[in-house]
Hints:
Layout lengths: L2 H20 L13 H4 L8 E9 L5 H19 L1 E9 H38 L10 H4 L5 E3 L5 E3 L11 E4 L2 H9 L7 H4 L12 H6 L1 E2 L2 E2 L1 E3 L7 E7 H6 L14 H10 L6 E3 L8 E3 L9 E4 L13 E2 L4 H15 L13 E8 L1 H4 L6 E7 L2 E2 L1 H4 L3 E4 L6 H13 L1 H9 L6 E3 L5 E3 L27 H11 L1 E2 L14 H20 L5 H13 L2 H7 L8 H12 L7
Parallel strand pairs: 1-2, 1-5, 10-14, 16-20
Antiparallel strand pairs: 3-4, 5-17, 6-7, 8-17, 9-14, 9-15, 11-12, 12-13, 18-19
Helix pairs in contact: 1-4, 3-15, 14-15
Amino acid sequence: MNKRLICLLLSVLMALSAFFAGCSYKSGVENVVTGEEEDAPQGERNPVTLTFWLPCEEGTTDEAVALVEAAINKELKAQFTTAIELKVFPIDEYMKAVDERLSKIEKKVEADKEQERIQREIAKSLRAEGITTKPQTTEETETTEVQTTRDEDGVVELKYPRVGEYQFDIFCITSYEDYLALIERDALSELDTALGGAAKVLRSYIYPTFLNAAKFNGVTHAIPNNHGLGEYKFLLVNKELVDKYDYDPDTLTTIEACEEFIRDIGVYEEDESIAPLLSWVDPPGMTYWSPDGSWNVLASLVPNNTTFNTKVAITSIFKINAYKANFKLMRSLQDEGLLAEDPSTVEKFGVGVISGDYSDVEKYKDDYYIHIYETPTATQKDVFAGAFGISAYTNDFKRAIEVLIAINTDPTIRNLLQYGIEGVHYELDDEDRAVKISNDYNMNLLHTGNVYMAYPSEDMDPDQWEYDKQKNLSSKLSPFLYCPNLFNSENAAYYEELANISKEYYERLQNVPTADIDTFFSDAQEELADNQTFTKMSSESAWAFSPAYIYNEFYNEYFAPDEEQ
């Protein structure tokens, strides 16, 4: 090899070495700061700045965000010698911004890998010529001294570094679909080691259902924000009328058990303002397989005693006996004029089903027997209404974990993140509820951490968190909670077709004469069996994009007894 080529190779190698020394990348747990620095007393730790990304609601201003960032950093610096750069985006732009930041980092990582490959090839060529090279370092990378600055009063303060162009640390995840996409993209750090160590405290603050649901293939990649799951459905039975018509209240715990009672009210009650039945009621646990949860010919029945490893069917609604029996009962009561025409105007009723939590039925307790009709259900959508992940490219994993612990356990930081500055953006009423006094800082309660560490908002019951905690203890775990996403790009078009098919069948069902309902159920099932779209979406074995197939494969892999597999 001639001297000019050797000199050129050496020059390129030195330039590349300097480039890599100046462009440090962190990637997950393997690259976190370790050793003496992390074990040092709090006051001796090096200052670190992390990025913290959130979606915001309409009206939020940059000035308000800057005030909140400064207030949070006052707390974080004192506790962890850590600061955050708080970046917020309107909710409809947020995930696009996350995608753009990740794409920028991913491109840089790929470019660096290519440069490393070139560097290795050059070094290999030089070694073949008997020339040994050493990686070059820069003065910047060798400097470890903590920098300080003085404030306007001359007080010495630690100088916190600015975030890097390619830095991305802590960010909110707003849906299960986004969570799965980020995992597939390898964009999230694994958190299980931390949850068994420094972040173990989170297990005392976050309901286990959330942490269990965050596991994907046995690995936790995000911390869901603890909150109330789903809602109850309560069966309310009028006490006065129970006594009047001599019924045993302990037997009136289901709609079916109340049938005769409802009819007696319709026949004998002289007060026409009393509705025998408040409204049409589905059987408890009906799950309709449409993206928005509306009525669909593809459905499942998930009873109150179901849990995450219970096998249920994703099938034709006309095969679900509980649905068919309930529909016939509701139709007969409707035909007899026993359902209220407009439930919103009814002040008194014999039997009714109310959705919500215990605060919603508190006003009924003196006049109605209250039974649980349907327990709250922990679903993927509920659990992942908000979660926080740490980027695989974080600048400092251990510091990021500390911040995640803080927003889930520290009420001061949690309320700053949610409501802003007390006296500027909100104030507390006599029941310790946050009342907005400014409209320039607006966050979704589910997107800013453990809700139980925040004040209830002004529109909530003061005891809302206690109601929610009790609700979570009563909740059932959906059989689909840990299942891969049943709504995806491969079956989206089929769901759309199924929605149109369902609309047609729903209209026909509403108009079928009561005497012909059984015949309709039978004929409709035969028709669906011949419908290609429905067959594909309900197949447990033939079509990989089918929700029934996806669920069946998931169940067989994780929960089915050996003889069923």
